[in-house]
Amino acid sequence: MSKPVPLLSASGLTKAHGRTPALRGASIDLHPGEILAVTGASGSGKSTLLHCLAGIVRPDEGSVTYDGRRLADLPEKRLSELRRTEFGVVFQFGQLIPELTALDNVALPLLLAGTARARARSLAGEWLERFGVRGQQDLRPGEMSGGQAQRTALARALVTGPKVVFADEPTGALDSLAGEQVMTALVHTARESGTAVLLITHDAQVAAYGDREVQLRDGAVAPLGVTA
């Protein structure tokens, strides 16, 4: 039986911030439709790994391959297009644009991709409804609760129909109830659309939503349960 081909893979990634190593030969595979939890202590390299996999930063050594293409071989224009259309990113604090309403925040990726404004706003409204925040569409981020803002950020990440969603501590700034609502919404939508999710978390309860878990320790992938 042939081994399934990863949608996204990293091989031997190293990355340093100044003189501080963040990744030390990290390798990882993400398969189509899979929810992969990446866990580890603070400073273990989780966010740096996500940034390399999403093409936000380039590793010092090693390679990232997406859908058979090395990210390092893509021109910046194509990489930017990839991040707008086939990748979705959700950060711990959502990073919504404070001056825009929830509806306009979600419509923004579509507008940047050339979708007509009326169509973009209509689709944005549908996605807000799927995440249970349609009633807040005219509110700005500062007027929403943390859970509402994070579900809006999820709608923005998924509105373009990406193949991969990168979620960096998506519940880290939320209480347990709001965090559960956000994860339930993310997992349900990912399953429904066949979207792969790379879930960065330090929370064992959040990691349990994944199909599989890998652990980072000192910038490298370690067997689960290794602490020393």
UniProtKB/TrEMBL annotation:
Keywords: ATP-binding, Hydrolase, Lipoprotein, Nucleotide-binding, Transport. InterPro entries: AAA+_ATPase, ABC_transporter-like_ATP-bd, ABC_transpr_LolD-like, MacB-like_ATP-bd, P-loop_NTPase. Transmembrane segments: none annotated. It is an enzyme of class 3 (hydrolase). Its EC number is 3.6.3.-. Residues 8-228 form the ABC transporter domain. One of its GO terms (cellular component) is plasma membrane. It comes from the Bacteria. One of its GO terms (molecular function) is transmembrane transporter activity. Pfam families: ABC_tran. This is Lipoprotein-releasing system ATP-binding protein LolD.
